[in-house]
Amino acid sequence: MQSRFFTLTGYPTGLPERELFSLEHQELPALGEGEVRIRNHWLSVDPYMRGRMTGMHTYIAPFELGKPMEGGAIGEVIESNDSRLKIGDTVSHMGGWRDIAQVSAEGVTPLPDIDVPEQAYLGVLGMPGMTAWTGLNIIAECKPGDNVLVSAASGAVGSLAVQLAKAKGCHVVGIAGPAHKLAWLESLGIEPVSYRDRTAQELSDAIKLASPNGIDVYFENVGGICLEAALSQLNEGARIAVCGMIDSYNAETPPPGPRNLAQLVVRKAKMQGFIVADHWASYRYFLNEVAPQVAKGSISYKETVQEGLESTPDAFLALFEGGNTGKMLVKLT
């Protein structure tokens, strides 16, 4: 059996060129002990993958040039050399960016028996959802009555963060760009604020109008002017959970820092970065809280779907152009 997969042919500077992604194929060897073969149905592309294209080891190893790329995937077991996994099982794993994955069973997880579409485990009930829950609850210690601000609030992580905060009884402001994303946030009961064509001061003023009593919790996904604007609206004792700073992921030179970091001192605020993998032991608590709400429709989520393995690099690059509402996915046929 053949597997088709993408490799990276060089480490990019700035926004990656489409030509750096090469579609290759190979004959798969016979299954080894403890291995499984999976036909992928859904692939995830995520902003963190840009950090794996630098050639440098950060909190995760970089992609190796010429080797199959990796990422979250959902698929069906078609051959198994592990007693725990049966043919026909639907599973999640990290053998993405390919159609057929042959991986160690140790990294393969059968999906829970919950009445949700299988691809939800790449988005609202997967790593992005767990990231939102972790940042809000564990890092920012969000509590009822807090005034909460979320950047990239219509994305896979931000759109769950705003809803979880709203469900706690918080006043929630979401930063986004296009009108349709702002309208979706408003339909969820979130105060929408656009960053488009605004300076940091103008964005700060807009946040103040949307949240006159200041900000107690800021969930940071963007950086740049969003961070500077948020810092100027902090209340005393505010908590900032730094999930990511997509604004700088493709920067060719170091971007300037916020001019008002002193607000952390003045407001006695806490700002903490986190990596969701360090908190994965809490995944079952997240799932117990969020999965029933997703199943009954009380949590809304959106997916932006591109079709076919060949579209995977395009789906990834679209993340940096605002091309997704909710989770960006690739559906394999």
What would you note in describing this structure?
- This protein is α/β, with parallel strands linked by helices.
- It folds into 2 domains: 151 residues, Medium-chain alcohol dehydrogenases, catalytic domain (Quinone Oxidoreductase, Chain A, domain 1, Alpha-Beta Complex); 151 residues, NAD(P)-binding Rossmann-like Domain (Rossmann fold).
- Helices cover 23% and strands 26% of the residues.
- The strands form 3 sheets. Strands 3, 4, 5, 6, 7, 14 and 15 form a 7-stranded mixed sheet that branches. Strands 10-9-8-11-12-13 form a 6-stranded parallel sheet, sandwiched between helices. The protein has a two-stranded antiparallel sheet with strand order 1-2.
- It is globular, with a radius of gyration of 20 Å.
- The two termini are 17 Å apart.
Oligomer: single chain
Instruction: Report the CATH C-level class of the largest domain.
Output: Alpha Beta
CATH-assigned homologous superfamily of the largest domain: Medium-chain alcohol dehydrogenases, catalytic domain
Report the radius of gyration as a whole number of Å.
20 Å
- Elements, N to C (H/E): EEEEEEEHEHEHEHEHEHEHEHE
Alpha plus pi helix count:
8
The portion of residues assigned to helices is: 10-25%
> At the third CATH level, what is the topology name of the largest domain?
Quinone Oxidoreductase, Chain A, domain 1
User: What CATH architecture of the largest domain do you see?
Assistant: Alpha-Beta Complex
- pLDDT average, as an integer? 97
Beta-strand segment tally: 15
Distance between the amino and carboxyl termini: 17 Å
Largest sheet: 7 strands, mixed
Report the structural category: alpha/beta
Runs in which pLDDT lies below 50 for 5 or more consecutive residues are: none
Count of separate structural domains: 2
The proportion of strand residues reads 25-35%
Shape annotation: globular
